[in-house]
Design a protein that fits this description.
136 residues; 0% strand; single chain; mainly alpha; elongated
């Protein structure tokens, strides 16, 4: 029973991270569609979103700090936020070419984040967490 609960919690956390990532991108797209007015300064940094807090200050750093996959996550995650901010800034400045380019770069970085999260789900640091919770 403990193993099933631990596995569900692990999967739920990764699902929350993915949903937060999607919600971040959705806010950028809403600005592009004119549904919301978004200023580049409204966009949180990669260190202050849920994934960033997990990565820098939370269990991610504690449990997976030695994982190569974990470390490869930092740059594309930072890029998602940076390109999203650049896209909004360019959109607000009326520079639609730069806005579209930044949006495409945000998507590329986002795809990389998603791939790395999938790899991290299978990484030994995450599996060790599950095994420890299962053995309790």
């Amino acid at each position: 029973m403990a193993g099933a609960i631990a596995e569900a919690a692990h999967a739920s956390f990764l699902d929350i991270v993915r949903l937060d990532h999607f919600a971040f991108k959705l806010s950028i797209y809403k600005a592009f569609l004119g549904l919301v007015k978004l200023d580049e300064h409204d966009i949180c940094s990669h260190q202050h979103c849920r994934m960033g807090k997990w990565y820098y200050d939370g269990r991610g750093a504690e449990q997976c700090g030695d994982s190569a996959v974990f470390h490869r996550l930092e740059t594309p995650h930072q890029q998602v936020h940076e390109y999203g901010r650049n896209a909004v800034a360019a959109l607000n400045a009326g520079d639609f070419k730069h806005a579209a380019d930044a949006l495409a770069a945000m998507e590329d970085a986002s795809n990389h984040v998603t791939e790395l999260l999938a790899q991290l789900a299978e990484a030994s640091c995450m599996q060790t967490r599950l095994q420890a919770a299962t053995s309790k």
